[in-house]
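Weekly structure sync, notes
Attendees: PL (lead), two postdocs, one rotation student
Agenda item 3: pending single-chain targets
PL asked that the sequence for the first pending target be pasted directly into the notes so everyone works from the same version. It is reproduced below exactly as submitted, 446 residues in total.
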Amino acid sequence: MRRWPGSTPSVKGIAAHFVNDRWVGALERGERRWTSEERRAALRAVTGSADDFEIGLYPPRDRITTGTIADADLVRGLDRPDSTDRLALTTPGSNIREHLTDLTDRHEGRMRTSTSGGPQHQTDGDLVEFTLILEDPGIGPAELTAVELACERLDQGFAAVRPDDALVRCRLLMGFALAQLRRPQKLCDQERLVALAARLAGLRAWACFDLNDHREAEHWYQAAATASEDARAWGLGAWLMGAQSLVPWHRRDFRRTLELIDRGSYLAGQGSDVTTQAWLYALRARACAGLGDLNGFRAAYGQALEAAEYSNERDRRHGMDFDRGTLDLRYYAGMSWLLLRRPAEACLELNSSLDALPRSHNKARSVLTLALSDAAVQSDDVDQAVDLARAALTASTHQPIMPILQQGRRIRRLVQQRRPEAAQSLDEPLRDFALALTSAGTSAGS
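Predicted structure, written out during the meeting:
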């Protein structure tokens, strides 16, 4: 125990008070802002302060009523800007704006009549407003964490839902995030909200891409990338670039694909998880294969395999598949071998990847099955190619996405070149799939 520095029992009417280090520390850090009348009197005597406000003590808001502070105290407070700031903060909400307006008017009058000629500093009214914003609780940590977990569940389940359903969920969560961003927030919470909005924008862009709205997808990817950089969420930004690269990849614009992947690799270098880095290497390997660059494919895929050894399923984002806790890159290897016209190697990788995919991932399984159909066409096994394509289209009609329809139509063209009569058996499943995709797009837009 120790006596408050400078306190003495000899001061008339003031009793000696003994305090410990924890009590003093809480007072110095501002954790304790109000105490008993006897202790406040002792503190005023020791510091020579005229009132509690001068020593930085004021009662909590829930203990203040309209009649707590007399009008005379308000007048005296307005003559002391430092104490007025505290006074305004401890006055009921109905009076805060009135005090702020009065305070701002007084300072503006001082600025207009100033003859110093020097630069004017920020007013105490600004300081009050600044403090009010910082003290506004905004979104609570528990509420923010709950929304982040909802976004995480949406991301994890994205592969198993219809694209229009995913789009609706993205809109709902994004509406909440944007509403919170319009309110004053703590700086740490603001950064988390921006990163959350960026991730939702990325998922929304992916859903737009699945529904064949490439223009809208590009806009959302760009907005998401800007927000992720503002939040310094480098891993998120790297994933966004990789996801956006799928738009030009499906157009067979492999050079634009590489530009976006390289941008993603740059962001990953600023501080990203190794899982995202491995995924970007695999995307790069596939793009190199599309350009016919065998050496580039092998170099990038070797980097992907090396990085994937250190991948972690906790870092999973939509577009990444795992097998026994490790990032599964065999789909990208299989697609690369297809682009390099090596169907035997492609089938080996694609079948292994298909075996590892969960049954609930109908869309991804259909994409892989269509890739195997492509390999069958390259091997001149038209019957197998048709059977695989029909199975893929039928299995995912209830979860239609444009990449499946695009690849199905491509298989039909390839079959048509080899055996026209066999291609006709794909007409009906392609028509049903196209109708289902149109219905999903209409549902998403309504």
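Discussion points:
- The mean pLDDT is 81.
- The radius of gyration is 32 Å.
Action: rotation student to compare against the earlier draft before next sync.
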